[in-house]
Amino acid sequence: MSYLMEKLLILPGILLGISIHEFAHGYAAVKMGDDTPLMQGRLTLNPLKHLDPLGFMCLLLFGFGWAKPVMINRRNFKNPRRDDAVVSFAGPLANLLIAFLFVGLMKLTDMYMPYTMTTQIIWEVLRSTVWINLVLMVFNLIPIPPLDGHHILGSIGGARVWNFYYKYYDQLRFAMLLIIVFRGVGRIITPPILFLYNLLTSIFF
User: Fold this and answer.
1) Could you tell me which residue ranges the Peptidase M50 domain spans (predicted)?
2) How much of the chain exceeds pLDDT 90, in percent?
């Protein structure tokens, strides 16, 4: 398979994964009482509203990346600590649900479509969508700013954890950059992604 064809096959999964991830953040925020994502036009599945150019290129070229964060105003939440955790976890959870759904579509393709070149292409698109959504889920759960994981950990840990993040925010972001540059992200996220991928496929196959 050519390099260009490989990138074209993962493109639908990237666009869907980014869109559903950020839509889920926005939807959860609105449900928790903050209309900021709605007013900014982020309550949509249109990928153009959610793409971060650098994050998109990293996903396309390196297999991991990020979207443009949905802006929220935590002062609008009734229970800021709980609601911020819910909103932060909504994106990764949405990616997991999409991965589950597309493994099911892989099974249906395997059962009901005859083996042809077209079927093989469809299979690869479905498989890539599963993988990319698991990447987005696991990558965003890393508890380093600005990823979702640091919001979740801060909301669970309370003031002491948030104070740590505020104090070392720039250093943690720089550490994240070093991990990316020296290809440490793959070593961190690949084992849990493989575990989840094998778990999901074992349910259907």
Assistant:
1) 118-159
2) 60
